[in-house]
Amino acid sequence: MTSQELTEQIFKKKSFLCIGLDTDLEKIPTYLLTEENPIFSFNKAIIDATHEFCVAYKPNIAFYEAAGEKGWTALRKTIQYLHEKHPDIYTIADAKRGDIGNTSRMYAKAFFEDLGFDSITVAPYMGKDSVEPFLEFENRHTILLALTSNEGAFDFQTLKSNGEDIYKKVIKTSRKWKNSENLMYVIGATKAEYLQEIRKIIPDSFLLVPGVGAQGGSLEDVCKYGMTKNVGLLVNSSRKIIYASQSSNFAEIAAAKASSIQALMQQELEKIQ
Amino acid sequence: MTSQELTEQIFKKKSFLCIGLDTDLEKIPTYLLTEENPIFSFNKAIIDATHEFCVAYKPNIAFYEAAGEKGWTALRKTIQYLHEKHPDIYTIADAKRGDIGNTSRMYAKAFFEDLGFDSITVAPYMGKDSVEPFLEFENRHTILLALTSNEGAFDFQTLKSNGEDIYKKVIKTSRKWKNSENLMYVIGATKAEYLQEIRKIIPDSFLLVPGVGAQGGSLEDVCKYGMTKNVGLLVNSSRKIIYASQSSNFAEIAAAKASSIQALMQQELEKIQ
User: Fold this and answer.
1) N or C: chain A end with fewer CB closer than 10 Å?
2) B-contacting residues of A 42-61, CB under 8 Å?
3) ipTM
């Protein structure tokens, strides 16, 4: 999916919500554990209930790997289900990969070719040749970690080099890489005021924003400082939606949560139309 | 395995060689492709032929993920084979993971608990709370990327902050994290002269050194600047060994390569005994 098509979907569905599928066998309703593939059964129920309120799903790959081969199968079945039933929904492999060139190429192959994700999150520490193999794929996006939403973000990302934060250096340097038009960026919502500065460097890029709600970020602030005329935002919520309830009507309650966030997003979108 | 036991193995086998299992279906001898699990068959042949010359194996996780569920099965079979046949060999999951706390915990669970690796490589960009969940595991090591062997290492790792390289800040800061005694570091061999500086910060830590040979680093220089009285070095070679030949005697030729590196390592070890 191109970023233009993603913007179209956002205006059509009046939502820029991304739902994180951090599916944990210890947190899903216990009655699902008797299913053939409990992780996929949970994801399917969540997707069926919430797809009209969001434009993207983001499986968090760690949770699938922790379940071994069965987890990998669940991941494949989830992405296949999305491709078949909801081909207009954008998919993000939250993998935070990054390695030397030939290895990054294998990761790109795994997530773009084999599984067919639209995008993948990638860590910048190893620089240009660790990211460019992902950027080679046409109509696929590489979502580079810039300023993350966790406490540890302040360990290295906000160190100053020549008077400039490292995360800004990461963003600026990445603009010079080959096929940099395929880049998006992770910017934590807990630091919404930083968005104003970031928009000076990347006025048009899509930003994937985690940490709204659960981690204290405000949707209104994120939109105030980060929204562009093409929206340029995907705001993620994971646990607040998918684990809103552990009862048998968990999917319905997840849908209600997603719907309430979508309603707030609709208000924000009306401001730019 | 503790680092003390690793040192003992090194002196016993007169080798600090780590063999990287970057097993690629497109590079292994084609006659193996008819086997039930070609990746595992290749790894088994390499392990059978080379185990006496090395102290560690390092599967590169990207190559297994690119093969989907079958790749994950190959990874599991490889590690099980090592545990059964060669319990004295140290294992490294070259995964370069790192995410917010609850997600890093899932990766730690996948690689330490489910697969049973002795160690995993981790990226530092997201800071303290992205690494500490790995450090919680007793007798398991977290091998933090500090200065990598690729060209892109110079994009961010060697930026100066307050007059000090970022990779040094990473090392220094990481020493303050909880259970930091479980840390090792990735230091690229192409920058052997940096090792002298690095040893001032971490005089005793084990370093995983990629890039000797193929990428131009010299084993002698690495030892000169990086070796401690407990050795403190694992030097990795992947493609130069495992793809030394694609003929039916590939394992034998890989063993000859590994043996020639072990002989050089023996000379270096004699200097500190």
Assistant:
1) C
2) 60
3) 0.96
